[in-house]
Amino acid sequence: MRSRSRRLDEEKRKSLIDAAIEEIAANGIEGASYNRIIERSGLSKGVVYYYFENKESLYTTVLEEVEREFLSAVGMLKIPDEKEAFWEVCNDHYKKALQFAVTNLKIVNVARSFLDPSNGLFSCENQKGPVFESFRRAERWMTVVLRKGQELGALRSDAPPELLRSVVQAVGYTMDSWLFDRLLDESESVDLDGFVAFALDMFKRVLSP
Q: What are the boundaries of each domain within the chain?
C-alpha cells in the first residue's frame, strides 16, 4: 500500500510538470498562468501547494526536468584532447542537440521563453534564485569547454572564456530562434543539415584564432 501511494504521488507530480510545460510552451513564461497550469493538471490547488509552495518552485522543477530530458537524450559535450578533434566533436554534439530539439519543440519553447532577453528574467537581480540554476550549470560547463578549446589552440585566446561564452550565447540564441520559428511554421521547410553547417561555420568565424 505504501509503494502505491508513492507511485500515485509521482503521477500527480508528473501531471503538474507536464501541464506547466504545456502552458509555458503555449503562452511564454510571462503569459503563463499558475491557475491555468493547475487546471491543465487536473489537480486541486491543495494538492499543487502540497508539492510546490509557489510558482517559482514549480518553474525550478520544470527546468530541472527539461535539463534531465536533454541530458538523457544528448549527453554532455565531451571535450577532446586534440586540437584537430575540437570542432568535429562540437559539430556532432550540436547536431545531436538540434535533432532532440526538432522532436521536442514544446520543451524547446519552454527553454526559449526563459532565455528570451526581452522578458527581463536575466537581469542581474533576477538571476539569483534557484529557478535559473539549470542555466547556470550550462553556462559554467560552456565556459569550461571554451577554456579547454583555448588551451588546445582551437579557439582564439585574445578574450576571456566568459566573454566568448556571452558571444556564443547571443549568436546561438539568434540562429536557433530563426530555426525554431520556421520549424513551428508548418508552411516552412528547413534543411537541418544545411543549418548545422551554416551555424558551425558562423561559430568558427567568430571563435577561431
A: 1-53, 65-207
Confidence at 208, pLDDT banded by 50, 70, 90 = very high
Cell numbers that stand for 20 in this block: 506547466
Q: Which amino acid is at 27?
A: N
First vs last Cα of the chain: how many Å apart? Answer: 63
Do residues 30 and 56 touch, judged by C-beta distance below 8 A? no
Tens digits of residue pLDDT in 135-174: 888 889 999 999 999 999 999 999 999 999 999 999 998 9
Contact 80, 86 (CB under 8 A): yes
**If you average pLDDT over every residue of the chain, what do you get?**
84
**Spatial CA neighbour of 168 closest among 209, 126, 205:** 205
Angle, nearest 10°, between helix axes 86-102 and 105-115? 110
CB 48 within 8 A of CB 117: no
Do 1-53 and 65-207 share a fold? no
* Cα–Cα distance for residue pair 133/166, rounded to 1 Å: 17
SS3 26: helix
Handedness of CA 146, 147, 148, 151 (dihedral sign): positive
Cα–Cα dist 183/102, whole Å: 7
Task: Give the distance between the most distant pair of CA atoms in the chain.
Answer: 63
The whole-angstrom distance between residue 106's C-alpha and the CA centroid of its chain comes to 11
Is 65-207 a domain of CATH 1.10.3470?
Answer: no
User: Looking at domain 1-53, what is its CATH homologous superfamily?
Assistant: Homeodomain-like (1.10.10.60)
